């Protein structure tokens, strides 16, 4: 699968599977004595895993102007003062929580900086197949010797509960694979066999699966775009989603009004939103943003996917999904925004 997708000469020997990529990330942090370098905002589990194990966390600032993404300049700032310090830099794209991704030139620049400091690059590409235009490219192409690609079935197969995650290592990092396999052997032992057989089928990625992915992307792309426009028109700032199924809106334009209602933090904001409207989003604070930033992560998948996929089968190929479709098949999400 990865040989076909990335064009890198991987073999089965380079792959470690586990009960979810989350477990593999934990074991990586356990066996590798290095700092964890992650952008703010970042997916909710990287930092707590580092804290449980006792690793030092370096948060890398991002800006809305750069769609809340890692920049080589900021990575450089973290590494410059102590260039030989061992580090795991996490890059996650398409991104949870923002939906952003990177262009090839940007990936090359980040790869260059990671190589300069000999950092382990953990490339969390679990949403790769959900790039809205199907154009995901792994950063492993540009820093193959130091990159671990993390993936799994949870997102593009809609099978989060099945628990199968993958790490793909270059030959130069087989020593890390072996250290992780030793821990795996003493903890989860193996991924359950029936799930492994399901994964074999999924990773064949034949025409039926490609068709399914094409339609998933068409729906997510139109929905993400529509919701973003709606929020932007209301004065909310957020990066344009390019993949996955998340938005990371910042409601700072409403700070004064919220303050008047006794809302000062993202947590208070999300609690009040839930109480008053029934809309559940996660506070930006959970993603490493300052508590008083009025941001949150919105997941736009609260709809019957099977029903939407059946309906889109009648759509002409290439035609983008219109608002009527979204209102009929994704009504809760449209209404919530
Ligand atoms: C960015 C990111 N990485 C990894 C995971 C973990 O996925 P799993 O452990 O199911 O493979 C998630 C799940 O929410 C995620 O959003």
Low-confidence stretches: none
Structural class: alpha/beta
Percent range of helical residues: 40-55%
Report mean pLDDT, rounded to a whole number.
97
Computed CA radius of gyration, to the nearest angstrom: 20 Å
Order of H and E elements: HEHEHEHEHEEEHHHEHHEEHHH
CATH fold descriptor of the largest domain: Aspartate Aminotransferase, domain 2
Bound molecules: pyridoxal-5'-phosphate
Side-by-side strand order of the widest sheet: 1-7-6-5-4-2-3
Shape: globular
**Separation, N- and C-terminal Cα atoms:** 37 Å
**Main pleated sheet:** 7 strands, mixed
Give the beta-strand count: 10
CATH secondary-structure class of the largest domain = Alpha Beta
Q: Helical element count?
A: 13
CATH homologous superfamily annotation of the largest domain: Type I PLP-dependent aspartate aminotransferase-like (Major domain)
Q: Give the number of domains.
A: 2
Please characterize this protein's 3D structure.
- By secondary structure, the protein is of the alpha/beta class.
- It folds into 2 domains: 2-204, Aspartate Aminotransferase, domain 2 (3-Layer(aba) Sandwich); 207-336, Aspartate Aminotransferase, domain 1.
- 41% of the residues lie in helices and 12% in strands.
- The chain has 13 helices and 10 strands.
- It has a 7-stranded mixed sheet, sandwiched between helices. A 3-stranded antiparallel sheet has the order 8-10-9.
- Strand 4 (87-92), helix 5 (104-116) and strand 5 form a beta-alpha-beta unit.
- Helix 2 (21-31) crosses helix 6 (174-186) and helix 8 packs across helix 11 (305-312).
- The chain is globular.
- The mean pLDDT is 97.
- It binds pyridoxal-5'-phosphate.
- Pyridoxal-5'-phosphate binds at residues 20-22, 43, 92, 96, 124, 126, 152, 154, 160, 165.
């Amino acid at each position: 699968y990865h040989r076909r997708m990335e064009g890198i000469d991987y073999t089965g020997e380079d792959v470690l599977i586990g009960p979810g990529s989350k477990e593999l990330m934990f074991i990586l942090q356990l066996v590798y004595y290095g700092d964890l370098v992650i952008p703010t905002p970042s997916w909710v589990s990287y930092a707590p895993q580092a804290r449980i194990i006792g690793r030092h966390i370096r948060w890398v600032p991002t800006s809305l102007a750069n769609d809340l993404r890692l920049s080589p300049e900021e990575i450089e700032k973290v590494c410059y003062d102590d260039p030989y310090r061992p580090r795991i830099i996490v890059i996650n794209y398409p991104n949870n929580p923002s939906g952003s991704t990177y262009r090839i030139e940007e990936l090359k620049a980040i790869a260059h900086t990671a190589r300069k400091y000999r950092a382990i690059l953990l490339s969390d590409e679990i949403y790769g197949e959900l790039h809205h235009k199907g154009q995901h490219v792994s950063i492993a192409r540009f820093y193959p010797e130091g990159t671990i690609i993390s993936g799994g079935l949870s997102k593009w197969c809609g099978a989060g509960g099945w628990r199968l995650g993958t790490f793909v290592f270059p030959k130069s990092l087989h020593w890390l694979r072996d250290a992780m396999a030793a821990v795996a052997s003493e903890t989860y032992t193996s991924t359950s066999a029936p799930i492994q057989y399901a994964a074999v089928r999924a990773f064949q990625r034949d025409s039926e699966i490609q068709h399914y992915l094409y339609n998933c992307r068409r729906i997510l792309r139109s929905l993400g775009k529509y919701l973003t426009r709606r929020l932007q028109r209301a004065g909310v700032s957020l990066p344009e989603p390019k993949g996955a199924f998340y938005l990371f809106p910042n409601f700072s334009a409403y700070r004064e009004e919220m303050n008047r209602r006794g809302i000062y933090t993202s947590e208070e904001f999300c609690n009040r939103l839930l109480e008053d409207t029934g809309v559940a989003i996660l506070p930006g604070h959970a993603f490493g943003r300052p508590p008083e930033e009025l941001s949150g992560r919105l997941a736009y998948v609260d709809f019957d996917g099977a029903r939407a996929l059946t309906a889109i089968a009648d759509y002409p190929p290439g035609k983008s999904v219109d608002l009527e479709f979204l209102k009929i098949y994704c009504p809760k999400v449209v209404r919530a925004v």
